[in-house]
Amino acid sequence: MKILITGSNGLLGQKLVYKLRNKASIQCIATARGENRLLQKEGYTYESLDITNAEQVKSVFSAYLPDVVINTAAMTNVDACETDREGAKLMNADSVKFQVEALEQLQKNHPGYRAHFIHLSTDFIFDGSKGPLDENETPHPLSYYAETKLQAEQTVIGSSLKWAIARTVLVYGIVDNMSRSNIVLWVKSNLEQGKTITVVDDQFRTPTLAEDLADGCILIAEKGATGIYNISGKDFYSILEMAHVVADYYKLDKSLIKAGKSEDIKQPAKRPPITGFIIDKAKRDLGYSPHSFTEGIQLLEAQLKAMGKA
Is residue 135 one of the residues assigned to a domain? Predict the structure, then answer.
């Protein structure tokens, strides 16, 4: 099975490549804009691909005729999307149209060829009035980021491809070059330095370990599953509760964590207050079985130690 991944330099992209690269039954094609930033270069093919360039998409897709495309590439900085709307639309919505159209054209040109398009989406397409949510919830975006992600979903659903949408929530994990932080590292690092942090207690999520999300995507690919799947963690917490779990795990001083409200944080984009996912469908159809949040922290800690960063 030929699986092509977009956004392979990103957090989820890296996890997917590392999980797929040595599978005998899978040919993994990793694609991202510019250079390959993964430390391990063996066991997969790398192609530079800018998914906002329709011609490049056509060219790379037709060179490989992938059985599966897992589209992880996106502009995920919610506030940046609010201010750079053109960039957000191009990266999150138009690029999906380019990929879908390229695969539909290949299916026309190659009788018998059928691509499985797996697209990553987000809990932010909901307004946050309730949660946790199942796959049948009606989207109602609050931010421009969410609007572009919903447009992409609509493109995928309206296509003639065999498709699946994997929606996720607050993904955390560690990338090769340690270029980005996450809720766990942020809380740990501040508390270790004795800094006081303010964490909102009015936003609720089901935090998702990047490895679990990668597993969910691979299960969709291997089972040829179609439709919408919630792929997230299983624990439902406020952001404040997450910070407390991290502090407890590392035996750090919880009194440094102060409760705050979303409205006190001046951010250009609105966040949904309550989301989080019900993952029963993914468990039942795919055999998806995510780590608990504490187990996820444990895995991150083992990775930090292996990198000599703990």
Answer: yes
Interval 210-268: pLDDT, tens: 999 999 999 999 999 999 999 999 999 999 999 999 999 999 999 999 999 999 988 99
Q: Is residue 169 part of a domain?
A: yes
Among 238, 278, 279, 239, residue whose Cα is nearest residue 132: 278
Task: Look up residue 146 and give its two tokens.
Answer: 């969410």
Cα angle for residues 60, 66, 69 (degrees, 5° grid): 90
Q: For residue 241, is it within any domain?
A: no
Q: How far apart are the first and last CA of the chain?
A: 37
Q: What is the C-alpha separation between 129 and 15, in angstroms, rounded?
A: 32
Tens of pLDDT, residue by residue over 222-231, are 999 999 999 9
Annotation marks residue 229 as catalytic? no
- The DSSP-derived string for 110-137 is STT---EEEEEEEGGGS--BS-SB-TTP
Interior angle at CA 224, CA 289 and CA 176, nearest 5: 55
Which amino acid is it at 83?
T
Among the options 46, 145, 229, 237, which is catalytic?
A: 145
Residue 10: inside a domain: yes
Mean pLDDT score of the chain: 97
CATH code for position 36: 3.40.50.720
Domains of the chain: total: 1
Domain interval for residue 230: 2-177+207-234+275-291
